[in-house]
Design goal:
The chain is mainly α. Helices cover about 80% and strands about 0% of the residues.
Length: about 80
């Protein structure tokens, strides 16, 4: 297994971990990191669908984190 495949596997694990957390705030933060990593992985392997989908997910996560920040009562971490 080369470094790019290892990076892709780690990226997948981060996304999987994000889906297992209870708090929506942590889900968005961890998923933002994982989707960004996976978008970069898609770029590295030359897969436009993988890169663009995960880039879109990262943008949505960032959007909702900003929205949560503006509605400060949502940021209560459980």
């Amino acid at each position: 297994m080369n470094y790019i495949e290892t990076f892709g596997n780690i990226s997948s694990a981060v996304v999987l971990i994000s889906l297992s957390v209870k708090s929506m705030f942590y889900l968005r933060v961890i998923n933002l990191v994982g989707a960004s990593m996976f978008a970069y992985y898609g770029y590295l392997i030359g897969s436009f669908p993988t890169a663009s989908l995960n880039f879109g997910i990262a943008i949505l996560d960032a959007f909702y984190l900003i929205k949560m920040y503006k509605e400060k009562n949502t940021l209560v971490v459980e």
